[in-house]
Amino acid sequence: MNWDDLRFLVTLGREGTLAATARRLAVDQTTVARRLRALEEGLGTALFERDEGLWRPTAVGARVLERAARIEEDVAGITRLAEAGAGAVGGVVRITAVSALIGEWLVPRLPGLYARHPELRVDLVASNDNLNVARREADIAIRLARPASGDFLIRKLAGIGFALYGAARGDLVVSAGDWVAYNEDLDHTPEMRRLHAMLGEGRIRLRSNSLRGLVRAVAGGIGHGLLPCFVADADPGLVRLSGAEPILYRELWMLIHPDARPLARVAATADWLVERFDEAAAGFAGRVPSPRSAPP
């Protein structure tokens, strides 16, 4: 048995299908099946069984997966310790955050990071999923909630204000009860709960998982929207309807594994992020009156 076989096992347990495992590991499905079969033959027991198209661990497989996941984190820790000794600010740092933050705010500021550290490379993962920092799926995670558990170094980066917005074009007539909103799988978020509380007899005319799509929908007169101020205030197609003070706040947090923080590339990137968020604090909070706010 070797760690590489266990890596296939752990990934299959996490992904649930051969196809998804193959994509994650950048191999083909036959390789995944072959490595799993070799591991099962070496251990002398079945570790997975097929169930309605998914690969589910057997009772023995579940216990093996638990141990293998701990080995995976230990291997990642060894790698981080080795990298920490290098000291130079170079190599790849992987940052995960929600897509709106990456596309609308982070990418335009990256040239400043590259100017400071020319040998640094950045992988940005735009995702609402909680990539596992301990397994090195990401070096730095930026999330719209403080983690309830886990061994992380955490720091609050900003408070994000949300306000009501409509189309800036005066020739667009939008009913007061027409709204745009995120897809139903995000109904648990504070902004969606607030919107549903205000909805009353109104209707949601458009749902999307794309913030940029919702912004364009509001600008086009499809409906009003409850949007983050740092995105909406900068869009000339929108006007704030709810006044200078946001009606909702959420907190933005940075998560780093304790073993990763000593890495020069991670430390340098984290410090740069803190500086940029501090500079933009007022814009994120949304307390600066928009020049396009509707009159009271």
TrEMBL record:
<protein>
    <submittedName>
        <fullName>LysR family transcriptional regulator</fullName>
    </submittedName>
</protein>
<dbReference type="InterPro" id="IPR036390">
    <property type="entry name" value="WH_DNA-bd_sf"/>
</dbReference>
<feature type="domain" description="HTH lysR-type">
    <location>
        <begin position="1"/>
        <end position="58"/>
    </location>
</feature>
<dbReference type="GO" id="GO:0006351">
    <property type="term" value="P:DNA-templated transcription"/>
</dbReference>
<dbReference type="GO" id="GO:0043565">
    <property type="term" value="F:sequence-specific DNA binding"/>
</dbReference>
<dbReference type="GO" id="GO:0003700">
    <property type="term" value="F:DNA-binding transcription factor activity"/>
</dbReference>
<dbReference type="InterPro" id="IPR058163">
    <property type="entry name" value="LysR-type_TF_proteobact-type"/>
</dbReference>
<dbReference type="Pfam" id="PF00126">
    <property type="entry name" value="HTH_1"/>
</dbReference>
<dbReference type="InterPro" id="IPR000847">
    <property type="entry name" value="LysR_HTH_N"/>
</dbReference>
<keyword id="KW-0804">Transcription</keyword>
<dbReference type="Pfam" id="PF03466">
    <property type="entry name" value="LysR_substrate"/>
</dbReference>
<dbReference type="InterPro" id="IPR036388">
    <property type="entry name" value="WH-like_DNA-bd_sf"/>
</dbReference>
<dbReference type="InterPro" id="IPR005119">
    <property type="entry name" value="LysR_subst-bd"/>
</dbReference>
<keyword id="KW-0805">Transcription regulation</keyword>
<comment type="similarity">
    <text>Belongs to the LysR transcriptional regulatory family.</text>
</comment>
<keyword id="KW-0238">DNA-binding</keyword>
